[in-house]
Amino acid sequence: MSTIGPERLEDRLSSAESPYVIDIRPREAYQRDHIEGSHNVPVYDDLRGGDEAAFREALSDVPAERTVVTVCKAGIVARTATTILEDEGYDAVTLAGGQRRWNGYQNGSLGYRLRSALGGLLP
């Protein structure tokens, strides 16, 4: 399973081949902060609990010709979403570190810079 870091995602979002970003966090979390242009498919709790039906049902809106990036809070539950997308034939990747890492990157946080400098040795 592939992942994408926030730097690369930012580059891809501004390109002609922009990926389709699915944020699987609950609606309240998505409303607080999210990646601009992302689509909220709030099935985080369903996937964490093992219920894939709601997520699979939402896939009908996902364009098959675009790479799909899945986002959750920290990048863990989104892996399940990525696996489901791959099983359905989509080119899908997970945002490494999830929304937390994206926010750290966007805000230039010290924690993000340290993790990047240490090559991901820190959680």
UniProtKB/TrEMBL annotation:
One of its GO terms (molecular function) is transferase activity. CDD domains: RHOD. Residues 15-109 form the Rhodanese domain. It comes from the Archaea. Keywords: Transferase. Pfam families: Rhodanese (PF00581). InterPro entries: GlpE_sulfurtransferase, Rhodanese-like_dom, Rhodanese-like_dom_sf. PANTHER family: FAD-DEPENDENT OXIDOREDUCTASE, PYRIDINE NUCLEOTIDE-DISULPHIDE OXIDOREDUCTASE. This is Thiosulfate sulfurtransferase. It comes from Natronolimnobius baerhuensis.
